[in-house]
């Protein structure tokens, strides 16, 4: 039976996942498997991450090794062309196949490494943020991207109560209900061949305004949690009011200055003059300012960003908003300055960005 296992793993080739499509590589990738869980495989050029999967039949279904199985192999970081050795949990059955999946991260997303960021915020005191790794859009969702996915969605059983607006194609989309952003995340997942994250009563959430939306563990696109957003915004740096430091000015973010009101506002009074042109809203093209240490743009200012979390507030049960927007003051743009709004509200200062769970590229 050991020999049968040997040729079974030899049949496992690399499956390359790019933009939600899957294709079989021309060559076998697994070089050796010694029967104790020590597996070596050959890297494919221009691929950033890998993971090991197993199945009881060659045709699948294939299962990713997870921490629950005793071997957390959600991602193996590529080291360049060469041979990689890793350890995997041995399956109980001899009827087991193994394969290496090569993962190409979606363009426009940054890996946010898991860990803990603890420190003292200048205004809010001690904090401790602990998250697992995930990927996040490096910019806020643009009007162009919103429209592209929305157009696909309405021909695939989705309905939206928001059209979505943007100053131009490369400005952040705004005036969207929280409900529609969540449905858009599901549509983006399904459009790219990923499982939808959000469900209502066990069914994929595609229509209406529902407050009983469940955020499942399915590995598709979703809104960040408040904790994930705060962690990502700090960029791996502690003890700061903003991702770059403790002072803000109009060269750092698109916000409304009140230097006479806040000692940490080093800007001028009023809107950012570079973008306060034509009619409101005075949004800026995404990525107009320097990114934080994780490569994320506009975590302060431009548009406030929806998170998934509920919060009790002056509007009853509301959803969390973070980051401040183009008409927000220096106080509202602080990383730890949470705000909230009812999910049925929308205005031209609220947008969003999405994240991917750690077991996706």
Index terms:
4 helices, paralog of FGE (formylglycine-generating enzyme), four-stranded antiparallel β-sheet, 12% helix, six-stranded mixed β-sheet, alpha+beta, 22 strands, 361 residues
Count every beta strand, where a strand is a DSSP E run of 2 or more residues.
22
Radius of gyration: 23 Å
Query: How many domains would you count in the coordinates?
Result: 2
CATH architecture of the largest domain: Alpha-Beta Complex
What number is the mean pLDDT?
Answer: 83
pLDDT below 50 for ≥5 consecutive residues: which ranges? 1-28, 66-74
Number of helices: 4
Largest sheet: 6 strands, mixed
In sequence order, what are the helices and strands, one letter per element?
HEEEEEEEEEEEEEHHEEEEHEEEEE
Structural class: alpha+beta
State which percent range the strand residues make up.
25-35%
CATH structural fold name of the largest domain: paralog of FGE (formylglycine-generating enzyme)
- Tell me the name of the CATH homologous superfamily of the largest domain: paralog of FGE (formylglycine-generating enzyme)
Q: Determine and state the CATH class of the largest domain.
A: Alpha Beta
Shape: globular
Distance between the termini: 34 Å
């Amino acid at each position: 039976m050991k020999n049968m296992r040997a040729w079974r793993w030899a049949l496992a080739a690399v499956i390359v996942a790019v933009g939600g499509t899957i294709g079989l590589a021309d060559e076998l990738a697994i070089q050796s498997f010694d029967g104790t869980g020590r597996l070596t495989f050959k890297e494919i050029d221009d691929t950033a991450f890998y993971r090991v999967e197993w199945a009881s039949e060659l045709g699948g279904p294939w299962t990713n090794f997870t921490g629950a199985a005793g071997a957390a192999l959600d991602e193996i970081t590529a080291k360049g062309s060469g041979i990689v050795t890793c350890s995997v949990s041995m399956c109980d059955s001899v009827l087991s196949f193994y394969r290496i999946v090569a993962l190409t991260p979606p363009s426009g997303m940054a890996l946010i490494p898991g860990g803990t960021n603890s420190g003292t915020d200048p205004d809010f005191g001690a904090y401790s943020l602990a998250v697992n790794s995930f990927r996040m859009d490096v910019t806020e969702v643009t009007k162009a991207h919103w429209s592209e996915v929305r157009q696909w969605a309405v021909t695939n059983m989705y309905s939206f109560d928001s059209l979505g607006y943007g100053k131009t194609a490369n400005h952040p989309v705004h005036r969207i209900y929280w409900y529609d952003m969540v449905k858009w995340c599901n549509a983006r997942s399904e459009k790219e061949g990923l499982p939808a994250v959000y469900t209502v009563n066990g069914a994929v959430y595609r229509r209406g305004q529902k407050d009983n939306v469940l955020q499942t563990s399915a590995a598709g696109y979703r809104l960040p949690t408040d904790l994930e957003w705060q962690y990502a915004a700090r960029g791996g740096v502690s003890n700061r009011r903003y991702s770059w430091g403790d002072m803000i000015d109009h060269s750092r973010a698109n916000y409304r200055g009140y230097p006479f009101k806040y000692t940490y506002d080093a800007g001028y009074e009023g809107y950012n003059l570079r973008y306060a042109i034509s009619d409101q809203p005075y949004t800026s093209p995404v990525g107009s300012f320097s990114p934080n240490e994780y490569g994320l743009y506009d975590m302060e200012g431009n548009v406030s960003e929806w998170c998934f979390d509920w919060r009790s507030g002056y509007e009853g049960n509301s959803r969390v908003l973070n980051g401040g927007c183009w008409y927000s003051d220096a106080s509202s743009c602080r990383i730890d300055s949470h705000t909230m709004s009812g999910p049925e509200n929308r205005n031209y200062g609220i947008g969003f960005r999405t994240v991917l769970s750690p077991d996706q590229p």
